[in-house]
Amino acid sequence: MSISIRHQLEPSDCFFLFAWRLLPDVKRWSIKEAPSWPEHLLYFEDLLNAQQERRIRAYVALVHGMPAGVLVTVNGEVNIMISELHRRKGVAKALIRAAQEQEPHLIAHVIIGNVVAAKLFASSDFQLAATTQKAHKACVTFVWRPKDEERPDHHSGE
Ligand SMILES: CC(C)(COP(=O)(O)OP(=O)(O)OC[C@H]1O[C@@H](n2cnc3c(N)ncnc32)[C@H](O)[C@@H]1OP(=O)(O)O)[C@@H](O)C(=O)NCCC(=O)NCCS
Question: 0.85 exceeded by the pTM?
Fold first, then answer.
């Protein structure tokens, strides 16, 4: 299977994102409520503006050229979802690797019980850092930093 990563959202991604936001497990494991179509249109317009102003970064996984999943970061905070058709093929891990090549750090809040997401982050070199509440939902927080920063003897500038 050929997976490539596009390092930005395009207007044509709007409908794919809407369809994925309505998937039962995406709704179940999202901190935000599922949107209506008009709400999604506003959200997507905001995303494109934020991307242009570099307030977010977005990575779109393409399988044989078609969108299969997306990862968006806001200040390093990860939001990821994959089309049901393309699950368990390494698409999420490919998106995380792409983000790890671009971002100085990443953080993910996983609602307790989302075992698949916890496995995804744990196997992508994230460390379990804390438990927290997000919109009244109990979450575990995973953080990732490049290996160099984890070394106790590392001093920047040396
Ligand atoms: C979580 C999610 C992004 C994983 O996407 P994916 O492309 O299927 O994941 P990958 O194929 O890259 O697999 C990543 C790891 O999870 C494991 N995994 C994936 N689906 C699994 C499943 N249903 N059961 C058990 N393990 C699973 C894989 O084996 C792999 O582990 P490994 O590296 O140890 O082999 C996807 O299931 C999804 O979109 N879920 C709904 C939204 C969500 O939960 N987002 C996260 C919010 S924090």
Answer: yes
